UniProtKB/TrEMBL annotation:
InterPro entries: ATP_synth_F1_ATPase_gsu, ATP_synth_F1_gsu. The keyword Ribonucleoprotein does not apply. GO terms for molecular function: proton-transporting ATP synthase activity, rotational mechanism. It comes from Candidatus Woesebacteria bacterium GW2011_GWA1_37_8. Keywords: ATP synthesis, CF(1), Hydrogen ion transport, Ion transport, Membrane, Transport. Belongs to the ATPase gamma chain family. This is ATP synthase gamma chain. Its main location: membrane. Pfam families: ATP-synt (PF00231). GO terms for cellular component: proton-transporting ATP synthase complex. Produces ATP from ADP in the presence of a proton gradient across the membrane. The gamma chain is believed to be important in regulating ATPase activity and the flow of protons through the CF(0) complex.
Length: 287
């Protein structure tokens, strides 16, 4: 049976936990506000860049069609980089916990994919992701990288990009921010060589390419993936921070209920002890 002192000690410990939860929530809120606008604006920027890339590819497709005796049927992909012919799935996770369920949700989608195809090579970003993977696939080989949960380390980011860009097909799994209360698992896929669209625009924009359309497309092929991957890392950070805010808010409510129950238990013990004292006093008077 609990004593009053035991309950008081537990209340003190739970109050300390409550303070910790509030600090985690406040830090996550401040950090989320700092990067949210940047991430959302980058979404629009990359959409615009991708539009320009498609126009450039369309122009290159027209150029190739002029020199192709077989017509467009032989034109499927164009690439300017060397690739290893393999497929890789990359999981952007976290280094620490308290990020709600978004990391686990993304991991579930990632694990489903890599289990379907034993030939897929695995890349893990973040210690939490590595632990999850080892628990579920302890015998499977993987490549590991460490990136910060907040902020950008350009040197480490470059290492991951250089590793991934050598693959023929790349799938990157990450959490995507939709709102403070909604974060979803997402995957973006990119293949070596960009597909040439057979449905060319009827009235295309006319561009003058300098130095050459081939050099511009090579720049796009190398830089667009790096930009997309960096955006995915930042999207993952934003989703994790939002998920932490929600998680800490739920924890806060649970702790309040916990403290309420403990205080009720303390009051019950006090009343019980008081009743025993009165019974003892009455017994001493009667006997």
């Amino acid at each position: 049976m609990l004593r009053k002192k035991d309950v008081e000690n537990e209340i003190f410990q739970v109050d300390s936990l409550h303070e910790l939860v509030e600090v985690y929530g406040q830090i996550a809120s401040v950090r989320m506000k700092k990067i949210r606008d940047s991430v959302l604006k980058n979404r629009e920027f990359l959409t615009s860049i991708n539009s320009i890339f498609k126009d450039t590819l369309d122009a290159y497709s027209r150029k190739l069609s002029l020199f192709s005796s077989g017509g467009r049927k032989d034109l499927t992909k164009v690439t300017f980089l060397a690739h290893n012919g393999k497929i890789v799935s990359a999981f952007i996770s976290a280094n620490t916990g308290f990020y709600g369920d978004i990391v686990q949700k993304v991991f579930n989608e990632f694990l489903k994919d890599v289990r379907l195809n034993p030939e897929i090579e695995v890349t893990i970003v973040g210690r939490l992701g590595r632990n999850l993977f080892l628990q579920n696939e302890p015998k499977r080989a993987y490549t590991y990288f460490d990136l910060p949960d907040y902020g950008t380390d350009k040197a480490k980011l470059g290492e991951v990009v250089r590793h991934l860009v050598q693959y023929e097909e790349i799938k990157v799994y990450y959490g995507r921010y939709k709102s403070v209360i909604t974060q979803t698992p997402e995957v973006f896929e990119i293949s070596a060589g960009t597909k040439i669209d057979e449905n060319l625009a009827k009235n295309p924009e006319t561009y003058i390419f300098e130095p050459s359309i081939e050099e511009i497309l090579m720049f796009f092929e190398t830089e667009i993936f790096a930009s997309l991957f960096e955006q995915s890392v930042q999207e993952s950070q934003l989703a994790k921070l939002a998920s932490r805010i929600v998680s800490m808010d739920k924890a806060n409510e649970n702790i309040k209920e916990w403290v309420k129950d403990l205080k009720f238990e303390k009051l019950r013990i006090i009343h019980q002890e008081s009743g025993k004292k009165q019974t003892n006093m009455l017994s001493s008077v009667l006997y």
